[in-house]
């Protein structure tokens, strides 16, 4: 049989809880669901292989948002996240995370993941910025996925690798009914009926095009093509604040994070070409990214990661973590360029745009039980709307989702859906394989992402967005009528391209809806440059209604941790310019 | 259509493949054992620890890392003492992930092994198990000829947090090796006894700057750190700004008012990291005497310094307000 | 429109002498998040079939025999 040859086939399975996405939130959700009801069937579906999938494929060098007793309180954390998000936060979910995450750290520790401990065996929490103390390094972070996978195997979770979910099934009563997926190596269809479904499909990280031009050199794992965002949208779920893009600082041309959280505690910092600090914001936020962007554009750019003021021994310690854990090719990259932290600062840049609540706030709308607006459908991790989740948020909220979904499944029956939906979806999925001639997915993807860079990247300009929408409409037309996939692997890329184009449309629509500027660079609109609390102190929810993309406002839930008047504009106030 | 789910292989089927003549095939079978998630796989792996092929034994050491408990520990002991270093390294890494205190029984005898690497790795694994009966062998290991072994022994002792170990830990703060001294100083942090604090304080005069840095930092968390305030004030004049920075942090945390002038003198240092922490410390102390040092840096070129200086000024003002 | 093939130098290199894919090993192919590695019908060894690499390293790190090397894709170097 030729490589990745297309096989005609369709089968059906059913389970109590279906978890889609085996990266960070997904395995935890599956594990917690199974532990809650060991008799129930839990299926974990993954487009790649659970062993090494998702944002933390090769590991993570530390926790950025660990709320550890004695160092930070849930109140403090909730306050800080609220301020970092310009107030647009439903605090309940953030607070719940903050309360539970320490328990999850202890659990991960018991799985064999080593967090940095001092010589007394206590967690060595580091202070990175002015306000709170939330950073906990992970010296053997490269073993995170292995440790989690081990737990899944012990609990005998049903793991289905190399199946890409394409659409959710919903019942006539609006409840979730399951999902349809396709094997990425044979194109066979697998229908999974489920009482509850948890989406843990990661960021939309393949939205913008990296400046290197290499399509897979993205900040996020390039497998995170926004499939979860697209599926939630087509199932009628609401998506929150998609205009609050993800943009991250990184090493120029190399997609390794800029390590504020790794090198920061050792005294390294982001500097301009004068070797001086310029970032005033404390917490990772759009405001911080705006300061970064402004410096890049100014005469004081480019921006650098500065370590050359540190002692040789300190630099060696930093290198060990940076090069071995999160992005182990980093050392190789610097070697190739003959750059050495000891000799000179390292050039930095900003990443392409994407959706990711893990770093910003753009995600499928969920409440504090990880429930979406579709009954029985949950979301957790980078794709769910709890802001600034990071890895620990994915584990914690995945655990919340798993437990609640199992409780829901235990008290409900399978929703009835129209069998014709399956045939319809099968034809939609396989359409690119039925064509004799056409445009391959890589060209359609490249064009869509190039247009995202040209028209949708902040600063956002209305006229540019409108042009972008028109051009993306043309790409969509080509994608729907002319895209060709000659084998199962190309079909995988073709389906990912559809997610990417859906996400691009959502990014444009959501950005045009919010006629103000907010979240620093993430939603900087040049024709609406001011923050407008009177009209826009609210979430924006995007959803599909009667087949059309619509947006509406949703009030921010009353705060449970009050923010004082003097704290509200804390970040604005911090920008105390030197008068000299 | 094939079963869409990952299989949970029958261990007996895998076992057949363990007898394959080709070492590559045996390795593949061992990988499957590791992923089986079935604790019964440990017995099969245990038998493979004596495979003639070092690559196979290395795979066994890795696969054992997927399991916890006394049986896994006993099998790991066999590969930790393997003559091939690659096998021993893999075993050491797997061993460091063990969490079940019951594992200590199998590992303890290795603390007296002839090879320093084995002694080091077994102590490292024992650390996380936190079992009281590991204290004695760890105390003995403080006299080990190998510095890496002594560092791990300090870890075992420090994790147990038992006051009776303070004299021994104090003794190693004057070890010949700087790494050992660093570990010993920070392991003393937990102690409520005065000799511990005195020993950390003496380390502020260590010849190695990183030991002095750790000492300055540790005094900020030690129960008797207050008594070392004068020594910390002296450390604010250390030739390494890294040491001064930690001393300022600790004096700030302890709110030592008489340190204000000395911390203030750090605020004009060219290293922004030090200016930043000095400003924060003056804020924590909130003594009106800090004001004159803070005023010049309200306009510092570094935003973090400005921010901390501003915050510190607010602390001084609000404290004055609170005192009426 | 007719399709042409496109030349590209791939970042992942496999040492055939060390690779044990012909003994039934599929570790690198399994762990790749982008699913770009395959086992050759001709040689029985692993190789990079698609230049869609995130250079994330599990293929190299998890290879039991050290046969896999991940290089930085040329466009980024």
Automatic annotation (TrEMBL), chain C:
<dbReference type="Pfam" id="PF12838">
    <property type="entry name" value="Fer4_7"/>
</dbReference>
<dbReference type="GO" id="GO:0046872">
    <property type="term" value="F:metal ion binding"/>
</dbReference>
<dbReference type="InterPro" id="IPR017896">
    <property type="entry name" value="4Fe4S_Fe-S-bd"/>
</dbReference>
<protein>
    <submittedName>
        <fullName>Ferredoxin family protein</fullName>
    </submittedName>
</protein>
<keyword id="KW-0479">Metal-binding</keyword>
<feature type="domain" description="4Fe-4S ferredoxin-type">
    <location>
        <begin position="44"/>
        <end position="73"/>
    </location>
</feature>
<keyword id="KW-0411">Iron-sulfur</keyword>
<dbReference type="GO" id="GO:0051536">
    <property type="term" value="F:iron-sulfur cluster binding"/>
</dbReference>
<keyword id="KW-0408">Iron</keyword>
<feature type="domain" description="4Fe-4S ferredoxin-type">
    <location>
        <begin position="10"/>
        <end position="42"/>
    </location>
</feature>
<dbReference type="InterPro" id="IPR017900">
    <property type="entry name" value="4Fe4S_Fe_S_CS"/>
</dbReference>
